[in-house]
Amino acid sequence: xxxxxxxxxxxxxxxxSGEWKLRTVTDRIDSLYRGAVLTIDTGxxxxxxxxxxxxxxxxxxxxxxxxxxxxxxxxxxxxQALPGRxxxxxxxxxxxxxxxxxxxxxxxxxxxQRYEDAFPVSNLTIGDFHNYAVGFDSILVHNTALCDEAxxxxxxxLNQGETxxxxxxxxxxxxxxxxxxxxxxxxxxxxxxxxxxxITPNAKLQRWAQQGGYIDPRTNKWVKFEGNLAADHVYPKSxxxxxxxxxxxxxxxxxxxxxxxxxxxPLPKSWNSSxxxxxxxxxxxxxxxxxxxxEYIDALRERQQAFEGFARELIRFxxx
Length: 320
Description:
Helix content: 25-40%
Radius of gyration: 20 Å
Distance between the termini: 28 Å
Number of helices: 8
Mean pLDDT: 72
């Protein structure tokens, strides 16, 4: 993607016809990104991406209930020609099935996250369909969600020495850098500063009650369960509140992080109370002497590390 220039044509997917077609790159924004970078491994290739970059997922666990990428254009997540939906890169999961330009699917084998101080990124705008194919496998991704485009503009302005959202918004207005659909820049920036989509533990519990099960810490496998389930934070709530500069967030932003849907899972109350406010490495005492499996602890540790990196990056972005 780093070599693609405005005016060149790339393969883009037409959801109306179900076909790949050549479409023109109408804009490109280059910047240096500071934050979490994901490496998505399909076995045949690896794709590096920032958070908040939508991938088309054909099938995946609890796919319907994952967050809608913020600031997608109306109707972009409601398709009929191709099953699935757009999913934020940081909400992808191992086992998700993604779509390739050859008409076949690929399975995400693993996802790894690291932190970069100056990672070069290029945000493209693609005419008509707003998507393209990336990587050796030519995986279908969104060109940039409105959220990604706003982040790209914000980062570009920060690189030019502007330090406040007011200065950034004024420059964007002055340079007439709004999207083709005339999204209001002030509204986009406000929504980036204060996300509104929040799924509470109660809503999660309603889903779990319908599914009737949970991942058993002893076996790391999904099991049926008809008793009472508790909403368990994967990364402990008490530690979220202790993250650097969490106290500087607005109440709504704090609530978003504390109730982030990807940071909850169902557990029977006895397991939940034994794990409460513990990281994976510290969770030794389990109810009635039952020991959690190594696979479960390893998966828990990986999810906790991923969420901590995501939370720190989001806090940094909101407070800049």
